[in-house]
Amino acid sequence: MLDLVCVFRKSGAQLWSKSWVPGALKGNPVDALIHHVLLEDRAGAIDVYHTGDYSAKWAIDNELELVVVAIYQRVLVLGYVDELLERVRDAFCGVLRGIAPEGRDDSFPSKGFTSAFDSIQAELELKALEERKLKAANKPRAFTESKKFANTRQGNKESCAVGGKSSASSTADSAADSPMGSAAEAEPAAVEEEETGSGGDALTAEQIEANRAKLRAGGGPPGKKKGAKGEDETSPAKKGKEGRSWDGDEKPLSKQQLDFSKKEDRGAPKSKVFQGKKVDLNERFGDLPAAAASSGGGRGIWASLKGLVGAKQLERADLEPLIEQLQAQLITKNVAADIGSQICESVCTSLLGTSQQGFGTMRATVRSALEKTLTRILTPSHRVDMLAAAAAAKAEGRPYVICFVGVNGVGKSTSLSKVAYYLKSNGFTPMLCACDTFRAGAVEQLRVHANALELPLFEKGYGRDASGIAQDGVRYAKQMGHDVVLIDTAGRMQDNEPLMRALSKLVTLNNPDLVLFVGEALVGNEAVDQVRGFNKSLSEYSASRDPRLIDGIMLTKFDTISDKVGAALSLVYTTGKPIVFVGVGQTYTDIRNLNVDHCVRSLLKS
Ligand code: GDP
Question: Per the database record, which ranges form the SRP54-type proteins GTP-binding domain (predicted)?
Answer without folding.
Answer: 578-591
